[in-house]
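Continuing the series of single-chain predictions for the mutant panel. This is the parent chain; the variants come on the following pages.
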Amino acid sequence: MKSPSSFLPVILPCAIVACLSLSVVTGQNTPAKKPTTWEDKKAALLKKGPTDLQRAEIAEKLPPFTAKATTPYRILVFYRCEGFVHLSITFANEAFRALGEREKNVSVDFSDDYASLTKESLTKYDAIVFNNTTALKPNEENRAAILGFIRSGKGILGIHAAADNFKEWPEGVALMGGNFDGHPWTANGTWAFKLEDVQHPLNRTFKEKGFLHNDEIYQYKQDSFAGRDKLRILVSLDMDHPLNHEPLKNERWQKYYAGVDHKKIDVPVSWCRKEGDGKLFYTNFGHRNETFSNPQVMRQILDGLQFVMGDIEADSAPSSEVKVEMATAPQT
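Parent structure:
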């Protein structure tokens, strides 16, 4: 008769199979449910945020204000997403937190609640920063409050995916300047940018020179983009530069660019405008975490903030109405 130990090679594999079968039945190997609500997405994707070392770097590289803040003001940084969630949201929030900590005249609040976008709530703020928000669905009260806010003389600053919002609210799309329609120039590439006005105060950070930069750059739906008759374009893709041509060969983008002379392709990146008595600044930079520890880009963002707050005087006449000197990107 065989000893009990001689049965182990048979018993153990059977036990393993039984356990695996049980785990399938009980759902233990079922993939985690993909978060669908904003609250679930925030918990899953924005929980960690920058490390202590990254926070220190953001604070260290945050440039000083170009102009002295003329009066104390309060900023609302709004960062809710109904669509895609950019992980860089927490890095931008950290940059504005550091700004509020450094600048005695500036206080910064953060919100992802539509209740903060009501007329009553917005009375205590001087500027709203839409930080990589996507697919926002403000109700009628929110819409009226946002438009009333800027038209009364206050400021709005949009970062990157702020142009991927308000798809059921045409006035909101027009306010920001355009609506996302894909990004041929991906976050993994380095692209060439030209200055649309080398003397413009909001381009001061670039020292009258075009530049190369690593970020994700949007194209905009043709029927949504406000255009050069309404916006003052500050920075755009340098479409004469070979770096920017390669993405256009991708089959995905052929429906837009097949047979089109690259010199006729217009991809604005940063702009400003007036809206009623208020002002708006938008930049497409900000997909990547590193944007918010980049002193050159952050200076334009902070100059944009000071522009909408009235600390920096800058011409916001539409590009079609002005003659300016441009600067193309370097070849290397």
